[in-house]
Known about the structure:
- This protein is α+β, with helices and mostly antiparallel strands.
- Helix content is 43%, strand content 25%.
- The protein is built from four helices and four strands, in the order αβαβαββα.
Amino acid sequence: MKSNFHSIIQSDTPVLIDFHATWCGPCHTLAPILKEVKDELGSQVKIIKIDVDKNQVLAQNYKVLGVPTLILFKNGKQLWRQSGVVPKHELLSLIKSHAA
């Protein structure tokens, strides 16, 4: 996953990474929000879900201490990061500002 992950975040399309866990309540709350964001923005964003329990090294490399943690990348650079549930309108605004 690590080498594949590195190539994914090199995209010039914004890539939103959702570090989540199956046992995490807020992660389940965030999932439909992310689907709505993807449905609305389509090809303007890539949304990748990463299970921290199955990808512990990757989570450690990005210092993910809590789930959900969202990190927005573009061209390999981390542009934004936040833990917890983020409202749809905030995600849309954030991604649109980096999509241009």
